[in-house]
Write a structure and sequence with these properties.
Blueprint (H helix, E strand, L loop, with lengths): L2 H8 L1 H38 L7 H9 L6 H13 L1
Helix pairs in contact: 2-3, 2-4
Length: 85
């Protein structure tokens, strides 16, 4: 065993910190993807299924982001993502 590989083996604390950071990044990315899917579902439901022909995609999206419309699917997918983790 060389000194270089021996010192790497002793540096397990920095490895743990690095792994925790990467794990958090993966979990946050997972939740963001689920929220984005929920937001797309909300836009589809409010725009297409409820036949609000006067509202554009941008208007519906702004209404959902400012909570003028309740983002039901976004909240539901957020709950599913948190439980799935």
């Amino acid at each position: 065993m060389t000194n270089k590989s021996f010192s790497r083996a002793l540096d397990w604390r920095s490895s743990l910190v690095s792994n925790e950071r990467k794990t958090m990044l993966v979990m946050i990315t997972f939740i963001v993807i689920y929220c984005f899917i929920g937001l797309l579902l909300d836009v589809y439901v409010h725009g297409v299924l409820q036949e609000e022909k006067t509202s554009s995609f941008y208007d519906i999206l702004c209404s959902l982001l400012t909570l003028k419309l309740t983002p039901v699917f976004t909240i539901a997918t957020l709950i599913v993502a948190v439980i799935a983790i």
